[in-house]
Amino acid sequence: MTAKRFKIISLYILVTMLAVVFLTSCAATDYYMGSSDIMMEDAAMETRYVQQEPAAAEKAPDTDYDTMVHNERVGEGNLRHVIRTGSIELTVKDTRETINEVRSIVEQSGGMISNSNVYEAREDQYNAHLTLRVQNNNFDRVMDRLQNLGKARNVQTGTDDVTMQYIDLESRLNNQKAQEERLIEILDIAETLEEVLEVERELHRVRGEIETMTARLNHLKDQVSYATINLTIREETVPTEEISPLAFENLGESIGQAFIGSINFILKAFSFMVVAFAALLPVLIILGITAVLIFLLVRKFSKRKKTSAGELESGQE
């Protein structure tokens, strides 16, 4: 093997090793950058001030259903079953304080907050969407009290008379229960196995219908007993010509959270660097050993070539 060919082979091996190092480094860099993005999101979440309100208040104790129905008569001895709904949009000075007042009003009326969504519309300005369930006979009073909590607009109320649906469902349920009792009586007097199986199949179907109708009737009773109010709360925007004191609210706490978030980010970055180095360490060791071997071979071959050249010159003299 000539010196020129050996150098070419050595250079080819060295270039191959460098390419392997470059590709491995790119993979590690991608891993670290992806992890860095996750750390940035974690730090932002740790320093961001977000307040969540409880999703719902405890449900009020059950009361007698007939006392909660909207007592409008459609005929002698018959009640109207009416579902009442309402919606209000309120503009207030402080959303969180208003939510506490709303909760107090609803609890005093024997109702509950079935859904709550509080979010930051802009910096230090919060809005909320609440779904309120109040007893039907307290609906008008609660609507009036809610409108006095701020500037009310888009106030809407509605009613849905479900009397016929309620009566029909109740009648069908009673018929199914009567059929169930009759099938149980037939099952007791059935003589053959075929008759027993046939009656049991029919009894299973009827009981399934009873469960479905009972669930629908209970849902209808709940809708009639408790009116639904959708409340939207928006916080007033501070005029630009006024200086808002909210900018310095909880300043010390925000600084502390930002400092702790930065420290956590640095620690996470350092830990990912250690992990990346540990992942590359076996490759670096193999490449280092290979580079040393190539260097020693090249050096040995160069010394041998110089020695041969010196002997050749001595022989010519």
What can be said about this structure in brief?
The chain has 317 residues and is an alpha+beta fold.
| H/I helix tally | 7
CATH class of the largest domain: Alpha Beta
Which of globular, elongated, flat, extended, rod-shaped describes the shape?
elongated
| Rg over alpha carbons | 40 Å
What would you call the structural class?
alpha+beta
Average the pLDDT over all residues and give the rounded result: 75
Q: Any idea how many domains?
A: 2
Q: Helicity, in percent?
A: 55-70%
Give the strand content: 15-25%
- According to DSSP, the number of beta strands is 7
Describe, in plain words, how this protein is organized in 3D.
It is a single chain. The chain has two domains: 3-48 and 255-309; 65-170 and 222-249, Alpha-Beta Plaits. It has seven helices and seven strands. Residues 27-77 have low confidence and may be disordered. The protein has 317 residues and is of the alpha+beta class. The two termini are 27 Å apart. Helix 5 runs antiparallel to helix 6. It has a five-stranded mixed beta sheet with strand order 4-5-7-3-6. The protein is elongated, with a radius of gyration of 40 Å.
